[in-house]
From TrEMBL:
It comes from the Bacteria. It comes from Flavobacterium buctense. This is Lipoprotein. Residues 1-21 form the signal peptide. Keywords: Signal.
C-alpha cells in the first residue's frame, strides 16, 4: 500500500502545474473540434463573476518561457483550440517544465475561461515512474483562478482519479482544494522585470488514497494582467519529505 501511495504522490501535483512535462500528438490543424476528452471534477460551466481583466491571455501561439529552479525550460505554448462538449479550450504543448522525482509523463493540458473563472483541464495520461513500473491516471478539471474576487475571498472544489500500475491493483485518489486571493493590483519583480497589475493567490490541495491522507500541496501563483502567470512556488509534503519547486517567467509572447 505504501508503494502505491508514493507512486500516486508523484503525479497528484499535476494540479500544481510545476511537475508536468506535457506532450501532444502532432497537430495538423490549429482548430480541433473534438467532442471527446475525459476529466473528473465537480466544476460546472456556470458563469463566473465579472472579470477584472485578462490574467492568462488565450490565443494560438501565445507562449511563456520559465526558469524552473534556475533552469530555463522549453516554451509553454498554446498550440490548438479544442471544442470539448460545449466549452472552448486552449491546449498547451507542455505545462511549466519537466518532470521530477525520476518520473516522466506525456500529458495533454488545456485552459478555458468563463467570465473571470479560469479552469485547467488535464486529460487521462500514461506515465513511466522510472522505477520499472508503468502507470495510468485518469484526468480532471479544476478551477484555478477567480480574477474578480477581493483579497481574502476564497473558492473550493474537489475531484477524484483512478490510478493503475503495472503488476499492482488499481486504486482511487481524491483531491480537495481551496483557493484564496492574497493580493490584488500588486507589483512583483521576476528575473529583473517589474510586473504590475498582479494577482497573487494560493491554492492548497489535500490528497487521500483510499481514505488515507498521502500528500499536501501548497502553491502560490502570481498572474499579471494581459501577460499571464509570471511566478509559481510549490511546496509538496508527504511521508517522504518536503519538496519546493520555483517557476519564474523568463520571456513571453502574447498575441
Amino acid at each position: 500500500m505504501k508503494n502505491i501511495k508514493l507512486l500516486i504522490g508523484l503525479f497528484l501535483v499535476f494540479t500544481a502545474f510545476t511537475f508536468t512535462s506535457c506532450e501532444n500528438e502532432p497537430i495538423d490543424s490549429a482548430i480541433d473540434l473534438n467532442n471527446g476528452g475525459n476529466g473528473g471534477g465537480n466544476n460546472g460551466g456556470g458563469g463566473g463573476g465579472t472579470s477584472t481583466g485578462d490574467y492568462w491571455p488565450t490565443a494560438l501561439n501565445n507562449q511563456w518561457v520559465f526558469k524552473q529552479d534556475g533552469v530555463v525550460q522549453p516554451p509553454m505554448k498554446m498550440v490548438s483550440i479544442n471544442s470539448i462538449g460545449s466549452f472552448t479550450y486552449y491546449t498547451f504543448d507542455q505545462l511549466f517544465g519537466t518532470g521530477s522525482g525520476g518520473a516522466s509523463a506525456g500529458v495533454i493540458a488545456r485552459l478555458r475561461k468563463n467570465s473571470g473563472d479560469y479552469y485547467l483541464k488535464i486529460e487521462d495520461f500514461t506515465f513511466d515512474t522510472g522505477l520499472g513500473i508503468m502507470g495510468t491516471l485518469t484526468g480532471y478539471e479544476m478551477l484555478i483562478l477567480k480574477d474578480y474576487l477581493n483579497v481574502n475571498q476564497t473558492w473550493s472544489g474537489s475531484f477524484s482519479q483512478t490510478a493503475t500500475f503495472t503488476g499492482l491493483p488499481s486504486t482511487t485518489q481524491a483531491t480537495s482544494y481551496s483557493g484564496v486571493i492574497l493580493e490584488k493590483d500588486a507589483t512583483v519583480t521576476v528575473n529583473g522585470t517589474n510586473y504590475t497589475n498582479v494577482i497573487k493567490m494560493k491554492i492548497t490541495q489535500s490528497v487521500t488514497v483510499m481514505g488515507a491522507p498521502t500528500n499536501n500541496v501548497v502553491t502560490e501563483y502570481w498572474f499579471a494582467k494581459d501577460i499571464g502567470p509570471v511566478k509559481a512556488v510549490t511546496v509538496s509534503t508527504d511521508d517522504t519529505g518536503t519538496e519546493t519547486i520555483n517557476n519564474e517567467l523568463q520571456s513571453y509572447i502574447v498575441n
